[in-house]
Amino acid sequence: MSGKGRIVVVDFDDTLFFVKECIGAASLELLGRRLSRSQLRELRPKEMKWKIYDLAFLKYSSLSKPNRRMINILSRERDAGTYVLILTARPEKTKKETMALLRKYKVRFNSIKLRENGLAHSSDEEWKLGRINGLAERYGDITIYEDKRDNISYFKHGVLYPEKFRFVHVKE
Hints:
Layout: E1 5-10, E2 17-18, H1 20-31, H2 37-42, H3 46-58, E3 65-66, H4 68-79, E4 83-91, H5 95-104, E5 111-115, H6 124-135, E6 139-146, H7 149-158, E7 165-169
Parallel strand pairs: 1-4, 1-6, 4-5, 6-7
Antiparallel strand pairs: 2-3
């Protein structure tokens, strides 16, 4: 169990940027009605949910609202020498739009990891847990910022070295 550095890991959707308007516009276009994120999570068939997410993050990405508080936290962390990783379950195919938002709002970070396109419809919490467990070998102090309480609970019970982790629930 090595690792001495400090890393901050931040989720993108509804943590670093609020995407309610993106989801609403995409669901209105595809279904004729605006869905909330919670309604979208419950939507069946799942294929329709994935279509809405894809449309929201590709066509309506510009409707995202920056979480200024989180952006300021990341800037302070970077200034203090902390490594900042954006870990998002968005698929790789949305990287151009995602990077455009980060540039537009001058978000300071070291790296970003998007989910591989082939895994785009797998469980986001399982995918993220695998990535954050990999960080425990390199870092001694890991702070995770996440909007979904279910994900935080899942991570707390699945991390390999719980003493290295601090989880922060982010609300709009």
